[in-house]
Automatic annotation (TrEMBL):
It is a multi-pass membrane protein. Keywords: Cell membrane, Membrane, Transmembrane, Transmembrane helix. This is Lysine exporter protein LysE/YggA. The chain crosses the membrane at residues 38-56, 68-87, 117-138, 150-172, 184-205. It is found in: Cell membrane. It comes from Gallaecimonas xiamenensis 3-C-1.
Length: 206
């Protein structure tokens, strides 16, 4: 992999993680509902989920998803059900959401990490995105240490971006505004998650 290819890879990845999607929604929701520390663990989970897609890509599983439609359907259905589960929780948000723990209901570090990890790892579009990205940017798949370095960079860059997002959503006037009106934002994110789940299923059959 040349340095120019790495820059293309890094730039395309940055644009992808910065665009609204399931990762953006889950980090935003936990930042607004439970504060910066919870959002940090969710962001780390999202970043770690990237490693799953890297493993899929290097092992050729992404190619299998693209080749065997039934396998992509099954994977997408599981992902859609998980998004629907998260959407239900968001839509049922109660009035008076704050940036602190809500009566001890905030997820602990392991649960927050797991939510971020599953949100990213169960997104089949991310796997196919990386397959297309590597296929269009690289002449050949990286091997050995180069593969590990690329995977580590993409996971770290993803985690840092969402850590920054969580920090911005809980900082100063913006954080106080979201603390006061956060339950409405949460419900909007719930609708967004419903749309993402619907888009997953729709894209498989039409």
């Amino acid at each position: 992999m040349t340095f120019e290819q790495f820059l293309l890879l890094a730039g395309a990845h940055l644009l992808a993680v910065a665009s609204p999607g399931p990762d953006f929604a889950v980090v935003s929701r936990h930042a607004i509902a439970f504060g910066r520390r919870c959002a940090l663990w969710v962001a780390l989970g999202v970043g770690s989920g990237i490693l799953v897609h890297m493993a899929y890509t290097w092992a050729g599983v992404a190619l299998l998803l693209k080749t065997y439609h039934w396998l992509e359907v099954a994977f997408s259905v599981v992902a859609a059900l998980y998004l629907l589960w998260m959407a239900k929780g968001a839509l049922m948000s109660s009035k008076g959401m704050t940036l602190d723990r809500e009566g001890g209901l905030a997820p602990g570090p392991s649960a927050a990490f797991r939510r971020g990890f599953l949100t990213n790892a169960l997104n089949p579009k991310a796997t196919l995105f990386f397959l297309a990205l590597f296929g269009s940017v690289l002449d050949a798949s990286p091997q050995g240490m180069q593969m590990l370095m690329v995977s580590g960079y993409l996971a770290l860059a993803t985690a840092l971006w969402f850590v920054l997002l969580g920090w911005l959503l809980t900082a100063g006037p913006l954080g106080r505004f979201l603390a006061d009106k956060g339950y409405w934002i949460d419900r909007v994110l719930g609708v967004f998650l419903l749309l993402l789940a619907g888009r997953l299923i729709y894209g498989l059959f039409w």
